[in-house]
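Two records follow; treat each independently.
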Amino acid sequence: MGKAKAKAKQVKGKLKETVGKAVDDKDLQAEGRGKQMTGKAQETAAKAAERLKKSGQ
């Protein structure tokens, strides 16, 4: 997954978390936080893959 898709997942997660807070839905908030964390991990992996590719490995 590329950095752009990972960032989009983070944004969607933040939106879900915000909506969950607005409607007082703890499950939706937790789902949103989970998506954000997944997106951050995927973004980190994509960055590492780019660095590895640039180093010629």
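The next record belongs to a different protein.
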Amino acid sequence: MARTAGIRWTAWIAGLLVLGLLAAWIWWRESDTAGRWRFEKAMGTFCGGVLAHEKSPLFEGLWPGLELSNDRALGPDAYACFLGDHRREVTVALLRADAHGGQDMEELLPPLTGRRLPVPLAGDWRGAADGDSVRVLVGCQGGDDFVSVTVDSYISTSPSETEEARQEQESGWLDGDVYWARFATATAVKAADRWGCEAEEGKPLRTLPPVTGEEQTTGADGTCAGLPFSRDPRLDVVEEATAGGTGLYEICKVGAPHYFDARYVFSARFGPYALRARDGDSGRGSSERAGTEDGAMWASARCPGDSERALFAGYVPPEAATVWLPGDKGKETFGLPAFREFVERSAARHGCTDLRMPTP
């Protein structure tokens, strides 16, 4: 009888243990607190453990339920990974001035992917945003190293739907655009601290600069401001962005849509982004500091805090020299003067000196 009671007691205890373990397992799988614990533990090593998932003055923090995937190392102090169902690809890297030649700059600094022209970040941050991409670059005080953070969005909605939603906002940006820009700035600071880089930190981002977009040449007041449009009466539209001295890219496009479809394009790239552009070039602009060739133009300048010379590039559409109204004829007169003006204004905004320009 005692033995039977002992067996029943043992079975009862075992049942309680099973129920307790089951309850603990359910709590671990379903409770918000356990979810946060699992997320915190995962973020300790995910993407090198340098992503700013915590709440801070710069960023409100990542959602604990965010999907984490495709974690990979790109080299020493360089990582890439995906966040969320909408697949935000994040790349974080320490760009050492003495190791640029051995780093894959195309992989560490992927190109902007958005349909908008890039705008500079506010708050004294050195960076750019174009809606679907964010770039942040922080310098290490007392040296030429940089910490780079890039965030690219592969969203499920179509680009046209996303752009329509942005245009409905008074600021021209969605809350998510600013959210990921803040994430990028906070991650840059965290990664810099992890890698022993005393970062040149900016202020918390509250918004992004307004989007200028396409307008008449008479209204150009951003990256296309001040160009000599009067040299060619065919030119009547520009596509430009807000200009600022902290941007990593600056782009201006000028067109004459009543005459030809292609557009003049003037661009500026700074610091490691200038190096990346030169690395990806077939040779034009890499060995020479200034020049022209087959409708292409390039110039360079020395800018504060950068070991790499800034790279300025221009493109003249071939149709600009051949397509005129019936009975009219002329020659292309806008390209080189406009490019030189673009370079001088961009270099001045960024405090650059030692300009090397193509000559007429």
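Discussion point: Confidence is low (pLDDT under 50) at residues 23-28. How would you locate this feature using only the token line?
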